[in-house]
Design brief:
7-stranded mixed beta sheet, 15 strands, 2,3-Dihydroxybiphenyl 1,2-Dioxygenase, domain 1
């Protein structure tokens, strides 16, 4: 099981977005789908029986898409970086992902890349498309990219150090510094959490946007001890704590989730599923024992 899973929060378009993404990347498929039951529909305002979440592979990397309503908006502060093998591939992705969306940086040669583009698709999700100079060395085709801007400008290096301290098999793998007004900033960096690759950068431009919970990072935990440890380390905004969600000091949202939860919510008995859902909706930090008790009741 993938340890850290990016979660994309849509209004009601998760199914259409996933269909688009799966059509564009090889080694992609839907893994499972969860629907709103009575309890979750009442809390969210979404129709009972409609799609709640879709877990899917995209180029061999697991994502979760959810229909949560219009609460959050995607911004370029967290984007998805794609390493492309050929010009044909990057041209295809550029055309498909920018259609109905927008272009932040047009597809062309830049100092840092032989061919690069930054686009927002018609659902608002931002994508950075890069023609990899040596695709044979690419370990992970799609990587979450976190831009530290606004009040978090110049905090990319600090944040990466903090994140890598929390997970095994984690490290900063590359860092390209620069200087602005006499102070060091991160132009571009890559880091691994539990062996999974992410990217980061600082930006001092007044972008008028910041990180939002529209893209969060799910952490699959096997024990309550692990949940407690990560929760205590990461949670920095008490009012953001709900149903396993938290927000850290840099504005990044995380979902600290027991691996057993998915099994409990997919039980063939609808009454058991609903009891687990009700129990989860009442929690901030998730408690495995209480979820299992609700399932058995």
């Amino acid at each position: 099981m993938q340890k850290i899973v990016p979660c994309l929060w849509f209004d009601t378009q998760a199914e259409k977005a996933v269909d688009l993404y799966l059509s564009l990347f090889p080694d992609s498929e839907i893994l499972n789908t969860l629907h709103y039951d009575k309890a979750s529909a009442e809390v969210s305002g979404q129709p009972e029986g409609s799609i709640l979440t879709i877990e899917y592979y995209l180029a061999g990397y697991t994502f979760l898409a959810m229909n949560g309503g219009p609460n959050f908006t995607f911004t370029p502060a967290i984007s998805l970086s794609v390493q492309c093998e050929t010009e044909e591939e990057i041209d295809k992705l550029y055309a498909a992902l920018s259609e109905g969306g927008g272009v932040l940086m047009p597809l062309q040669k830049y100092d840092f890349s032989p061919r690069f583009a930054w686009v927002a698709d018609k659902y608002g999700v931002s994508w950075q498309l890069n023609l990899a100079p040596d695709y044979s060395t690419v370990k992970q085709k799609i990587e979450p990219f976190i831009m530290f801007t606004g009040e978090n400008f110049r905090k990319a290096k600090e944040a990466m150090g903090f994140y890598t301290s929390l997970f095994e098999n984690s490290r900063i793998t590359s860092l390209y510094p620069s200087e602005e007004n006499g102070k060091e900033i991160v132009m571009h960096a890559t880091f691994e959490l539990n062996g999974e690759e992410l990217m980061a950068s600082d930006s001092g431009i007044d972008h008028k946007f910041t990180i939002t919970p529209a893209i969060s990072l799910i952490v699959n935990c096997t024990t309550q001890e692990e949940i407690d440890t990560l929760w205590n380390a990461l949670s920095a905004v008490p009012e953001a704590e709900q149903c396993g969600w938290l927000q850290d000091t840099y504005g990044v949202s995380w979902q600290i989730v027991p691996t057993v939860l998915n099994t409990l919510l997919q039980d063939t008995d609808p009454q058991k599923r609903e009891r687990v859902m009700k129990a989860m909706l009442a929690m901030k930090k998730l408690n495995i024992a209480e979820l299992e008790t609700a399932h058995r009741a």
